[in-house]
Amino acid sequence: MVVSLISRALGERTADGAEDRTTDRIVDAALRQFELFGVARTTVEQITKHSGLARVTLYRRFPGKQHLVEAVVLREVRHFLDRLDGRLDQLSTPEEKIAEGFVFTLESIRSHVLLSRLLDAEPESVLRYFTVEGGPVVAAARDYLVERVAKDFPQGARNRAELAVATELVVRLVISFLLTPQSVAALDDADAAREFAGRYLAPLLRGDGAADA
């Protein structure tokens, strides 16, 4: 499921038409119920009630709860990537984009209501996708970052294969900081996190050697 959802989120970010307003309404209701009660305790009946739509309308689009979970995850990933791209496209230099992208990712994921609830109340439903079964997540994030860095560093020193290794290291580092936030690096402070990214991550992605001491 993770592979298909993230791949779709990366490759199919398109604007919803008027026909999808009902779907959005259902997904909004599902997201809210998941945030309040978690995935395991939420029923399709609760989602139907809070969407204000007929049961047949919901089931026509989503035959079961797993389909609703997938729809919520897919939309949340798409929204995150759209916001991230929007933030980065406002910046001028690659170094600014790396620093801001790092800060934005940490802040967005740490403040995500549903993810925080699941990690706290239903960790078994989430943690495996970032640890022992985390390969697809790492690969999808790495592939996105490769394309983003190649775009922002058109004259970068790394070839494609080297860039894939460098971006995977960054992805794994970010996941580690998200799951284990305690660190000697003061990443709770946005300015300190930007400085960290500029000092340690930018040189890694550029391929120009270690940062100056």
Quaternary structure state of the chains depicted: single chain
**What is the SS-derived class?**
mainly alpha
Unreliable residue runs = 12-19
How are helices and strands ordered from N to C?
Answer: HHHHHHHHHH
Largest sheet: none
Cα-to-Cα separation, first versus last residue: 44 Å
Helical residues, percent: over 70%
Explain what this protein looks like in three dimensions.
This protein has 213 residues and is mostly helical. The protein folds into two domains: 1-75, Arc Repressor Mutant, subunit A (Orthogonal Bundle), CATH 1.10.10.60; 91-207, no CATH class. Helices cover 71% and strands 0% of the residues. The protein has ten helices and no strands. The chain has helices at residues 2-11, 21-41, 44-51, 55-61, 65-89, 94-110, 113-121, 135-152, 160-179, 190-206. The longest helix is centred in the middle third of the chain and has 25 residues, at 65-89. The protein is elongated and about 60 Å long. The termini are far apart. The model is unreliable at 12-19 (pLDDT under 50).
Tags for this entry?
mainly alpha, about 210 residues, Arc Repressor Mutant, subunit A, 10 helices
Write a short abstract of this structure.
This protein is mainly α and 213 residues long. 71% of the residues lie in helices and 0% in strands.
